[in-house]
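Chapter review: from sequence to fold.
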Amino acid sequence: MKIEYMEHGDVLIPNLTVMPEDEVQLGKYGLMRRQFLKEHRPILFNQYLSTQTLNHHLLEIESIAKQRKNKLMDQFKIRDSISEDLKANDPILWAQKMNQIETEIDEILKSELIFH
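The token string follows.
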């Protein structure tokens, strides 16, 4: 690999450019991971950028988070006795319980996957 340099005063500076990655549609978890890396792990963020693997990493995090969320959602529905009968008989209670477990799952995913 040949690196070209440009002269800036008495110093030679490497002429480095990063090729843009393809645009991807990130969901909630991919966007949170990107923001976390950018603000709290800038070296890792720049490493992903310079090796053009940031989008791949973010899509992988998004996919893992969605799979884990679905699995946890099923487990928590059983744990909290949330059923279709409850949904039919008391939709407000059902919605409250679903929102509660979704919030709980989001906190788990943030601590285990996003902010890791």
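Two observations follow directly from the output. DSSP finds five helices and two strands in the chain. The radius of gyration is 22 Å.
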